[in-house]
Amino acid sequence: MKIKIDQTLHGYQNGHQLLMSSSQLSGDAKKILLVQSDLSGSNIDEGFKIYISGYPLATHYAFSKTWYADEMKRPGCVWTHTLLIQFSDLGKIPDLDQLLLYFKRPIKDKYEDYSTPISIEKDDLLNSDSIFDDFTKAIPVLDAVYNYPEKTIIYPAYTSLEFERLIIQVWSNQWPRLRRNFSFCTGALNLKVVDGVEFDLQIVPIRTTGSIEKQSSNSFIIGDQIIENENWISLFNTSSKNHLRKFLWFYGSDIKGIRRNYKPLIELYEFSTLKSSSFTLINNLVSNRFEDNEGKLIKNEIYNEGILYEFNEKEVLDYFILNDNSNIDKKYINQRLINALKSNKINVNEFVDFYINAKQDLISSDVWENISILPSDIINLFDRDSRLIPIFLKEIPRIAILVDTWKLPIETQLKLIEILENSLHVNWELTISSILESKSSVIYQFLRNNDQRAYYIIKIFNNIGFPDSPNIVSSIFANRTILKDFIRKNISVLSVQFCCKIFQYLNYPELNSLGLDSSYWKVIYKKVDDEQTRIFASCVLLSFGFNRKVSNPALIVAECFHDVYYYAKKSKIQYNNWQFIPIDATEQDEEDSLFLFFSYLFSPKKADVPSWDYCELLIRTLVNKFIKFHWSQQYFLDSLKIFDTTKSALSYAIGFKKGRKFMDEILFNIDKRKIQINDHQVQLITSLRRELRH
Q1: DSSP 8-state class, residue 222
Q2: Is the N end or the C end of the chain the one with fewer CB atoms within 10 Å?
Q3: What is the pTM of this model?
Q4: What is the distance, to the nearest Å, from the Cα of residue 264 to the centroid of all Cα atoms in its chain?
């Protein structure tokens, strides 16, 4: 949709006059435009060489921009470009500052651009999200313009540009009838008047404020007053721009476009944003501010059961339901009661009060089937009286996933659990999550006798972390069948905390009873980051490997042997952890009678090892286990992660026949590239070759 805007250009040519127009102007319009387009005062002010003005004509609104014409020899000359907007189009432009784009300062003697109307595509006009660029800056202007509607508002400034956008935004937020009557000037060097009426809002140079105030018959100066941010003003900072304007455009359409009507209309908008409104206040506001023949649209909303305001329907229902009104149709009472609840004119507790206290048979039991009550309200009803629970049987699964449900008295919670267990389509994972979040003791209902719902509890704790309650955690890890099932299904996503808790809450036999194979234990062990827990875990898992209590035991031995050796060397392994590990430090055959030359890398080992020498006992057990059970030689080398452990293991192995044979096989497989060696093992393997050649 296009908007056609006529334009005029005024300037100096043997006196100030009309230089070009895109349409024929009436005589009255010409006179007003000629006066208003001239310099707004007798003396120019440096900060006010460019300014804008807006004022109504008979059929159009004149929006103009004035430039001081420095290029003219005659002082006091100006150019003024005026846009003539039809009243019917003024409300179609969302933000009137868009019109600033169409002002054009003329070039002397080149006026053809002003001879034809401007055509604007409505869809091309931008519409900002905010009502004001700077709400704080707008407060004194809003206060002055609308709290003093009968006065001329004078705003002293240093430049005409200081408040230009603000003034246009004030103008833009008026409904169309008020827009067309509102007048302003951002560069009033003298008091601006049109047809004997002072402009509503005038920005004036600070130095001339006093003289302009004297020229006005009834003015208000915006100065240093302390202004309270009234509720109706705050709405401009908190409201949706589109919502506010929609209200003003619709309900202002049959209200006079005068400043006096703006504040009450905004206050009526404020009432419409509230969940409940005072009928008395709104009635007084409308009857005192608007004349009988105006505001019919807003009055219809107030007096004819419109939807704009929420009055206290409870008072009406009190009268219908709790008093003797035998002549009132029961169906009407029931429907009005339902409508009141659906429209939030009464709350659920009030609804229940009506239901319980009404005369017998006045309110039908079918009323519950026609309403939708928020879960939070149903929870409150359960808290109030658990006898109401059967009424909401269909709602129970939805109620169960709310945290507040599980803050009700424990007796009510247990009753809900009983109902849930006999209900279909219960989302137990979400329900249990809410129970846990509420810290309800009813959670223990699912932690007994390997209840399958404990699976969801474990899943939740794995995802969000375990609670501080040792009792709950202990109960979780007591469900070892479900614990094992969860680990198998979720091994790739087990949390660090969960992996630590496994070793913190289960003892050796309990860990063994999980029946996990080495691949699972390897993943779990890698995530254990607490040292004390890791010491215990490494000893347990090494024991599982040495005792062949897991499938592929060499895998878990290779994973945790080095850690156990390290903790033993640092004297961090307590006896109760050490006793898990089966020590096999006895050589499997007699020493070879052949003379062996031991290099500086390898030294002969004593047959006996003292019980306190954990490190040597571990090394010998490792070698003997791999030889005895024919475990993977690759896992053997992988167990020896540092130079010292590799050296000790090789030194021990070459001291007896089976050990040397084992080493020969390792060297053979290294040559065949069937097994890989670590960087630190290269030198030791080279020396080993020399030793075995002797």
Answers
A1: -
A2: N
A3: 0.50
A4: 36
